[in-house]
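WP5 quarterly update. Target: Acyltransferase. Source organism: Pseudomonas fluorescens. Length: 189 aa.
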Amino acid sequence: MALYPPNIIRAIAARVQILSSILRCIWIRLSHSGISIGTSVSISDHVRFSVTDGGKLLIHKNSHIGRNTEIVVRGGTMEIGENVFIGSHCTICAHENIFIANDVLIAERVTIRDQDHNFNGKEVIRTAGISTSPINISDGAWIAAGAAVLRGSKIGKGAIIGANAVVKGVIGDYEIAVGLPAKSVRVRT
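C-alpha cells (predicted):
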C-alpha cells in the first residue's frame, strides 16, 4: 500500500472542506426561507441557524462562520457584511436588528445579543418579557475572544474590543476598549 505525501493529503482535505462548505450553503438556502447567502461564503460544520417569526438573515460574500456557532433571528433582522470572520462557538441572537459591517473580525466564543430579559419587580424573569435595542458593529472592528456585546451597543470603525470585555453602549471609531464594562483605554493611531 503506497503512502501519499502529506502535501497531497492536505490538498485533498482542503478541497473536501471547501466542497462541504458549498454543500452546507446550498442546504441552508434550500431549507431556510429567511436566509440569503452571498457568494464564496464559508460555513463550518455544526453551525446552527434558527430564523423564525418572519426574521431575515443576510450574509454577504466572502464571509466565514466558524464551527459550533449559533445564529438566531427571531422576528428581527441580521446582516453580516462582506469579508466578515466569525470564529467558532459564537452566539449571535437578533430579536430586533444586528448589523455587522464589512471586514469585521469576531474571535471565538463571542456573544452578541440585541435583547435581554426584563426584571423589574418580583415577577418570574422567564415570563417578564424582553427589551430590545439594535446593535451596530462598524467596518473593520475586531472583537476578541470571549467578549459580549449587549443590546443597544455601537462599535465604531476599526475599534478593538479586548478579550472577555462586556460592551454596553458606544465605543468610538478606532478606540481600544477592555474590561467589564468595556471602557476605552486608548485610540489607535
